[in-house]
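Appendix B. One record, verbatim.
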Amino acid sequence: MKKIISLVIFTAALAWTWNIVHSTQAIGFETHSGIQEKLAAMIKKTVLSKKPNAKNFRIARLWTESISETKVRAIFAYEFTELVEGNESTSQTVEGEAVLFREPKDETNLDRWVLQSVKTTNDTVTFSEGMVVTPDAGAEAATPAAGEPTQDTTAPASSEHK
């Protein structure tokens, strides 16, 4: 009896995994690839238009995953170098995600994906050369040392209304 139950369970599990492996996806590989290509071009165009001094732009990471039959989430990260003040440069890395929504098909019978939301989740700036920051001589004199009493030079606020 135990062998028959084990055989039935094994057969059911085998059929279930076979169906999972051979089932068709709601959103095909070509669609994901097209979304990634268009999104990469759009990100590059937007960054270079807003930061004209940006150089060495590259998409570090970009992938898409299906949320439902009509929604796709894209996760991305891009890097670029920007020249600032003189010969200094900064390297910036921005990570984020976007949600795309599939509009209903029209007479052309082509999928049309619309950006529903875009948000950046992490922005890192790395300076190529460090900068030495020293306190101003005037600010140093105005700041008392630890444990030193401070003098209040402001007039006390009056609580009476005239």
